[in-house]
Design brief:
Helices cover about 40% and strands about 15% of the residues. The chain has about 325 residues and is of the alpha/beta class. The strands form four sheets. It has a seven-stranded parallel sheet, with helices on both faces. A two-stranded parallel sheet has the order 7-10. The relative contact order is 0.14. The structure holds uridine-5'-diphosphate.
Amino acid sequence: MKYLITGGCGFIGSHIADRLISRGDEVFVIDDLSTGRLENVGGIINKKNFHLVIDTILNISILEELVRKCDFVFHLAAVVGVKRLLENPIDSIIINVEGTYNVLKLCQRYNKKMLLTSTSEIYGKSDKVPFVEGADIVIGDTRKRRWSYACTKALDEFLAWAFFEEKKLPVIIVRLFNTVGPRQSDMYGMVIPRFIKQALNNLPITVFGNGEQTRCFIHVSDIVDALTRLIEKDEAYGDVFNLGSREEITIKSLAEMIKSATRSSSEILFINPETVYSRGFEDMNRRVPDTTKIERMVGFSPKFKIEDIIRDTLKSIQNSEKSGNRI
Ligand code: UDP
């Protein structure tokens, strides 16, 4: 099979590319390297079944050529991370909405199946955990920039539904919950690589608020397993799935685990997030997925525990620092 991965030099996209290449598929990647990195595809870049185009999904003629060539599209290109979206609100909105429109339109034109990656951010500040796919979404004030991300992704989902219903586009939507693992950068605000870097440098580990907020972290390898199995299921097309772990942990305990895994002398510092994200930051207390649908569809059950996730992410950060390639 020939696959196109938009955002294939990114953290999750590059792991999908690795998996497909290793099983002998042909992989095309389009990535503008805004947050993606060439190092992420360093292990496959010279393979003859791997093809990389450095460009944006807003470049419709290049995108069209790629969609035409492939059998299936994994659409991951998007603005990632709370930090980046707070810093670049206009670009974030345009890439997420116009870019996704381009991908949907071309897949429909050339009759290609696709998977749209969405996000747990969609549920906004709903407190009805665990989040079920059909639940209401609760989005904050439009002047708080964080919520623009949830809205752009919700709009992407609306568009995907419209293409599915009106144009019969075979599309699957997957809402990814806090995904972590090797290659994830600390530069865009993601908490695990951020805490690890702080701990390795014996800097204060910056827990926002009182640290009682929780998240469920999933290893990227479990995500790749589930996605590659999901696209094989005909019944999955025209449907939406949560994908994440149900192992809930407070951010305070996460900081303690990372401090001990790194044998760091860092202090754990409780800070107001507004000192880091100057404007528009609002945190969620709990974010837990209901994963019944994907469990039924592909027998999904994450293999990695939080300890494994911390260990693998730590190893990858240490290796990249040794080689001088900052993640
Ligand atoms: N967080 C924190 N310190 C940091 C970065 C993040 O305490 O330096 C917290 C953040 O407030 C949130 C959790 O860690 O409650 C996860 O943050 P992340 O940005 O990784 O993901 P998201 O908020 O999108 O779930």
